[in-house]
Amino acid sequence: MVKPDPRVILKEHNIPITIQRVKILEYLIRTNEHPTADQIYSEISDEAILSFATIYNTLHLFTKAGIVNELHIDKDKTHYDIVRKPHDHFLCRECQKIYDIYDLPIQPLTNDTIDGHSIERVHIYFYGICRECLKKNKK
Q: 96-117 b/e with 16+ CB inside 10 Å = b?
């Protein structure tokens, strides 16, 4: 699968291109994790001149533009996820890993309103024990 070009994404969203924005977006595109701002900083601070403020401000900008989603699945930290195919998330209470959940067997909304409220997006968080931890616990 071809990875999206960060510069193209920034242009499509009318966001000025800077090396810091490109590096942050490249990292979010290539990772299979759901990193926090601190994790992003730790992973890419050697690649470009970055401060924590730059990371937070850029993530806020990307969230407002619809490039990334903020995940509030963990009560202590905000995680970030590049916007791809719509999906939900599962947090394992044992290992704290966040999994992407696609194609839920839940009936989709048939219209964009519920009780007169305009629905812009729906996100579901699941909590439990992941299959890897279940295997470990059986041993």
A: eebeeeeeeeeeeeeeeeeeee
H runs (alpha helix) in the chain: 6-12, 19-30, 37-44, 52-65, 131-138
Architecture of domain 6-82: Orthogonal Bundle (1.10)
- 106 pLDDT more than 70: no
Domain range list for the chain: 6-82, 88-138
Other C-beta atoms lying within 10 Å of the C-beta of residue 91: 20
- Helix/strand/coil for 40: helix
pLDDT in tens, 10-36: 999 999 999 999 999 999 999 989 999
Instruction: Give the distance, in angstroms, between the CA of residue 1 and the centroid of all CA atoms in the same chain.
Output: 19
* DSSP per-residue letters across 106-126: SPPPSSSEETTEEP-----EE
What whole-number distance in Å separates Cα of residue 48 and Cα of residue 138? Answer: 45
Yes or no: is domain 88-138 CATH 3.30.1490? Answer: yes
pLDDT value at residue 1 = 59
